[in-house]
From TrEMBL:
This is Pyridoxine/pyridoxamine 5'-phosphate oxidase. Its cofactor is FMN. Its EC number is 1.4.3.5. It comes from Seminibacterium arietis. FMN binds at residues 60-65, 75-76, 82, 104, 139-140, 183, 193. Homodimer. It catalyses: pyridoxine 5'-phosphate + O2 = pyridoxal 5'-phosphate + H2O2; pyridoxamine 5'-phosphate + O2 + H2O = pyridoxal 5'-phosphate + H2O2 + NH4(+). InterPro entries: Pyridox_Oxase (IPR000659), Pyridox_Oxase_CS (IPR019740), Pyridox_Oxase_N (IPR011576), Pyridoxamine_oxidase_dimer_C (IPR019576), Split_barrel_FMN-bd (IPR012349). One of its GO terms (molecular function) is pyridoxamine phosphate oxidase activity. Substrate binds at residues 65, 122, 126, 130, 189-191. Catalyzes the oxidation of either pyridoxine 5'-phosphate (PNP) or pyridoxamine 5'-phosphate (PMP) into pyridoxal 5'-phosphate (PLP). Pfam families: PNP_phzG_C, PNPOx_N. Residues 32-157 form the Pyridoxamine 5'-phosphate oxidase N-terminal domain.
Length: 211
């Protein structure tokens, strides 16, 4: 398999330190809006990297369900592999890649569970079958067959034909950011990279990184 000649030239846009907004969360929202408007598939899909207590990193895609002045919210099974990693180490990283815009955003921070009433509210907005699925799937556990999973889902649906309560093991996390990097692809691999960090007073400052 020859992969050597697969390469893309990045020419679309540029990014200067000056044009970046003072608050990286606002800058993120600006880029996310542009990604949504440009008809990118799954613009809210983000890679979530966690680390277990042996120092082994792992990553997977999850969907961003809310961004606010505090951080980035996603939903999952608290007993999954990522949930176990988070209970051992709350330091995580997020990565968004919007290929059509030749953009990447990297975020590092600390993750914590959101309040239960917020998880209840989001859970109740999910489609019925997804709510049943949250009960049926012991996410990340080994299962002996798909058939058993479907049978479990059917029995849970019989138990909860209308209202499905949120399982205690399912809910939201918020990633509170301490670092952002906005990457815009540029010609000749001389990409624009603007990083935001927090100073000692908790104010964001930004600097340009070498590509
Ligand atoms: C596009 C896409 C979106 C996904 N969204 C979520 C999500 O929001 N929450 C979630 O728990 N898993 C989501 N998954 C599944 C995860 O990538 C992963 O398989 C699952 O969470 C188990 O991960 P873990 O074993 O590391 O805990 C998504 C997968 C893809 C490809």
């Amino acid at each position: 398999m020859d992969l050597h000649n697969i390469r893309e030239e990045y020419t679309k846009q540029q990014l200067s330190k000056k044009e970046c907004l003072d608050n990286p969360l606002t800058q993120f929202e600006k880029w996310l809006n542009e990604a949504i408007k440009s008809d990118i598939k799954e613009p809210t899909a983000m890679n979530l990297a966690t680390v277990n207590d042996s120092g082994q990193p792992s990553s997977r895609i999850v969907l961003l369900k809310e961004v606010n002045s505090q951080g980035f919210i996603f939903f999952t099974n608290y007993l999954s592999q990522k949930g176990k990693n988070i209970s051992q180490n709350s330091l995580v990283a997020l990565n968004f890649f919007w290929q059509e815009l030749q953009r990447q955003v990297r975020i590092e921070g600390k993750v914590k569970k959101i309040p239960e009433d917020q998880s209840d509210e989001y859970f109740s907005s999910r489609p019925y079958t997804s709510r049943i699925g949250a009960w049926a799937s012991k996410q990340s556990a080994v299962i002996s067959s798909k058939k058993l999973l479907l049978a479990k889902a059917a029995s849970i649906a019989a138990k909860y034909p209308f209202y499905v309560p949120r399982p205690a093991h399912w809910g939201g996390y918020i990633v509170v950011p301490s670092m952002f990097e906005f990457w815009q692809g540029r010609p000749s691999r001389l990409h624009d990279r603007i990083r935001y960090l927090l100073d000692q007073n908790g104010n964001w400052y930004r600097e340009r990184l070498s590509p």
